[in-house]
Amino acid sequence: MSEHPGGQTGAVPVCPRHPDTVSYVRCQRCGRPTCPACQRPAPVGIQCVDCVAQANAALPVRRTVLGGRDRGGRPVITMTLVGLCIAAYLVLALVPQLRGDLVFAPVVGDVQPYRFLTAAFLHSGFLHLAINMYALWVVGSVLEPALGRWRYLSLYLLSALGGSVGVLLLASPANDSWYTPVVGASGAVFGLFAAIALTMRRLGRDSTQILGLIAINAVIGFVVPNIAWQAHLGGLIVGGVLAAIYLYTPRRKLWISVVGTVGILAALVLLAFVAYGRV
After folding, report:
1. 270-to-71, 155, 242, 264 alpha-carbon distances in Å
2. Domains in the chain and their CATH numbers?
3. What residues form DSSP beta bridges with 48?
4. Where are the transmembrane segments (predicted)?
């Protein structure tokens, strides 16, 4: 007679996770029956998924040189951000009337604050989208594994917010800047530019090329019409400050990164309140 999970006796052994599945293969670690769907190869024999999960949980968390969690694999956050921007572009191509409800302009930011962030996922045309997504992919693929997912995502989103706040602070109700809609991930991308430049310096690598790239893009923002250089500047400043906090926080004191992230967010909200309060 074989022992049934739960201490009961039964005619045949069954998998604890799939009671309808008979299994004569047992986990080498816990000895329970394990069906093919729950079997995982081990150095010796087979282990069940529960034992493998317990073993992985007991392993020490691997950290990068900058304190980020070393997960390996693809840059999931970067891929998701690129996918969201592309999806937004396609949706607005099919339903263009939605654009007016998502773009950012200082005149509507106080009553519809979600626009501070949604505008960073919209683009004015395919070339605008392609340039920003290329920069996001190139820089993000390096920064995400170095910083870890949550710090990288925080850096991107707060830089995007910083871009919108930059537009707000440098606009005036006395001219068109208060009413001009702004879209694009450029503020967030400039935040990543600042972060990758600081990262390379932190690691003792030559940052001349990335600094040159930032300078070229900054000049383009002033020379080429219809480019919100204010968003570039806002994203660059926020990204630089937040990256400095992340890069120079001791690896064993990552709570400082959390406090810094919350502090930057609070500062952006405060600046927005002050800007609207002076109107």
Report:
1. 35, 18, 17, 10
2. 2-58 (no CATH), 76-277 (1.20.1540.10)
3. 39
4. 76-96, 116-140, 152-172, 178-198, 210-227, 233-249, 254-276
How much is the average pLDDT of 222-234? Answer: 79
Separation between Cα atoms, residue 241 and residue 261, nearest integer Å: 10
Q: From its phi and psi, is residue 275 left (phi > 0), alpha (psi between -120 and 50) or beta?
A: alpha
Q: What is the distance, to the nearest Å, from the Cα of residue 230 to the centroid of all Cα atoms in its chain?
A: 22
Q: Which two tokens stand for residue 16?
A: 């604890």
CA triple 224-226-232, angle to 5 deg: 80
Name 125's Cβ contacts closer than 8 Å, sequence gap at least 6. none
Q: Which pLDDT score is estimated for 44?
A: 77
Residue 239 in tokens: 């990204």
- What amino acid occupies position 190? F
Q: Which amino acid is at 58?
A: A
Q: Which sequence positions are flagged as catalytic?
A: 186, 232
What's the pTM? 0.76
